[in-house]
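Supplementary Methods. Inverse-folding protocol.

Structures were first reduced to a discrete structure-token string of length 230. This string, shown here, constituted the complete conditioning input.
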């Protein structure tokens, strides 16, 4: 049975990251639209899949899984030899420990401060609310201080969990790509050349560019091998 990915119409958030992993690992899947605008995510049917009424959700022949990072790790563990390897082998104890360390850092020291900024410059605008400048300034200061540490780490290694691209790097692609279109270029600052180099590589991944440009349906076909370009 082909995997089913329940996601919204917009290529963003965790759904986009899961779709990217599916494409990089060349895993066939069916894209099923959850109409967020009409609150389909809060329907009784969807709440059976995700008790919090969110996306993404993965259905693997009746095995239902939600939460982006859990889905991505599941895909890597189930298909370790397919497409691109995106995590250390389970037998690599130290590699797994460094992967888990980097994954924890991504949540605590990137995602959370980044989301404060996205809330002000992206989400508030989408909801028709004004930007709270004090909150934005505080968010930029906090996020910038975390990126200063990223700069030090990425000066010593190519990616966040070592010298190989991994799921942890891809986790950073939830909402951070929306910052530059909103006029916040903190991830491409010349003052942090290693962060800039790393970030430009992530957003320049061919599979990511195609996903953003052509949507989930295209990448579902890409994963299944009906198109090329990953």
């Amino acid at each position: 049975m082909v995997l089913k990915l329940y996601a919204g119409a917009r290529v963003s958030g965790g759904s986009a990251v899961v779709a990217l992993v599916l494409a990089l690992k060349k895993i066939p899947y069916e894209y099923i639209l959850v109409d967020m605008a009409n609150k389909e995510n809060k329907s009784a049917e969807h709440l059976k899949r995700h008790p919090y009424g969110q996306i993404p959700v993965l259905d693997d022949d009746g095995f239902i899984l939600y939460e982006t990072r859990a889905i991505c790790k599941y895909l890597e563990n189930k298909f370790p030899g397919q497409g691109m390897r995106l995590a250390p082998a389970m037998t690599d104890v130290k590699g797994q420990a460094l992967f888990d360390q980097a994954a924890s850092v991504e949540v605590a020291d990137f995602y959370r401060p980044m989301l404060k900024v996205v809330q002000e410059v992206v989400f508030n605008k989408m909801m028709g609310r004004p930007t709270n400048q004090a909150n934005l300034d505080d968010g930029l200061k906090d996020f910038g201080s975390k990126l200063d540490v990223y700069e030090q780490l990425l000066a010593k290694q190519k990616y966040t969990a070592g010298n190989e691209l991994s799921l942890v790097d891809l986790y950073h692609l939830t909402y951070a790509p929306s910052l530059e279109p909103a006029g916040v270029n903190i991830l491409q600052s010349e003052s942090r050349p290693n962060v800039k180099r790393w970030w430009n590589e992530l957003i320049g991944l061919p599979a990511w560019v195609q996903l953003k440009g052509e949507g989930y349906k295209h990448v579902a076909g890409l994963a299944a091998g009906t198109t090329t370009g990953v």
